[in-house]
Amino acid sequence: MARPREHDAQAARDGAVQAFLQRGFAATSLADLEAATGLDRRQLYNEHGDKMGVFLQALDDFEQRASARFLGALEAREAGKAEIVETLNTFVELSATEEGRLGCLLCNTSREPVSRDDARVGDRVSAFFARIEKAYANALRNAVKVGDLELTAAGRRRHARHLMATHVAACVLSRGGVDRKTLRDVVTVALQPLR
Amino acid sequence: MARPREHDAQAARDGAVQAFLQRGFAATSLADLEAATGLDRRQLYNEHGDKMGVFLQALDDFEQRASARFLGALEAREAGKAEIVETLNTFVELSATEEGRLGCLLCNTSREPVSRDDARVGDRVSAFFARIEKAYANALRNAVKVGDLELTAAGRRRHARHLMATHVAACVLSRGGVDRKTLRDVVTVALQPLR
DNA sequence: ACCGTTTTTCACCGAAAGGTGTAAAATGGC
DNA sequence: GCCATTTTACACCTTTCGGTGAAAAACGGT
Asked: Which end of chain A is more exposed for a tag (fewer CB within 10 A), N or C?
């Protein structure tokens, strides 16, 4: 029917996510995106309309991947205390890697002006924070059910929020260049109430 | 000797800080800075060399003001448990205000590419995080000395780092649009170990 | 009144930004 | 083989970007 696509759509999306992770929305130019995706800008625009469209897609791609990788354990039906400990420890180790130094695209974006200017962006950031909180709430609920923890419903919500804040702080501090030992201490104290 | 200055230097600096708070480094143009400071770009350049110079000055101005306002109590000689509680509660209330929605210039900057590209920027961000940790460490040390708390030296450091992370998370979540009640819960749990 | 010095103002620069028009290239259907 | 359709490639547009040259304006010293 028509000319077949030559480029790898998945690789292009990954490239866009990577570019935005490194430089943010404002500082990533179309030339940067062309280099990162291997696509001509005309193709990017045919698919996503404009730069913001490319960015929104990258936000969604990142959320999907990050959720699968870092929230999957917490969102699982059988998640419990062990999964909470495991997840936060993952971030400690990650902080020492280049990937950790890039931070989280959603958390990074929350500090960009675009998250205030465009509701679609701000909403995704808020939704991601809410999802993180919900994931920890799920694990806490199970932990209580299994008898690993004693908490009221209100207490569970409070702790879920605190763990979410720790999760976010880990991403932000990691990008800020804070060393692994510092993050180790942060997580150790944050996990204390679960002991 | 020469023509006297007509503009208010302090107001101009405050304007620059405000502009960078709202739009970050990359997305703030010289035209924005002219509007925010009331100065012609030529004057900005005569004083600070280039846009980066203006930004570095704004970072320093912000740190000085933010430290005086939010770390002053913690850094005081007589700071203790009460000051820790008071400081974190301040951020909870601040989150409901427009000022809170702007976040912290240093924390916001940590996700900008410029903080990775220019060592002068990255160093200021790291130094600010370290200063926050030190402020909490000071208050914790006093609290132990007075008998309000029981902690080893290592325990104090751990808790100082955790409080620093909570402090930073409060700034970031506040900018991310998280509501006051959520932040209230975060801080409540974070302060639990001090009870 | 004049001079040296500094501030102020404004016009201007090349480069890079985001975005688009258009035609060649590559297919399946007829 | 030709057509309709879609992808690809490249040149090009306007606007805005960060940054600068140079002259006018406002003083104090003499």
From this structure: N
pLDDT at B9: 85
Residues of B in contact with A32 (CB under 8 A): none
| CA angle centred on B27, ends B26 and B28, rounded to 5° | 95
Q: With contact defined as beta carbons under 8 Å apart, do B174 and B103 qualify? A: yes
pLDDT of A3 over the 90 cut: no
**Separation in Å: C8 C1' and B32 CA:** 19
Query: B111–A114: do the CB atoms touch at under 8 Å?
Result: no
**DSSP H helical ranges for A24-146:** 30-37, 41-48, 51-66, 72-75, 81-94, 98-102, 105-110, 114-117, 119-146
pLDDT at B6 over 90: no
Say if residues B84 and B159 touch (Cβ distance below 8 Å): no
pLDDT category of residue A4 using cuts at 50, 70 and 90: confident
Question: With a threshold of 0.70, does the pTM exceed it?
Answer: yes
Residue A8 confidence (pLDDT)? 87
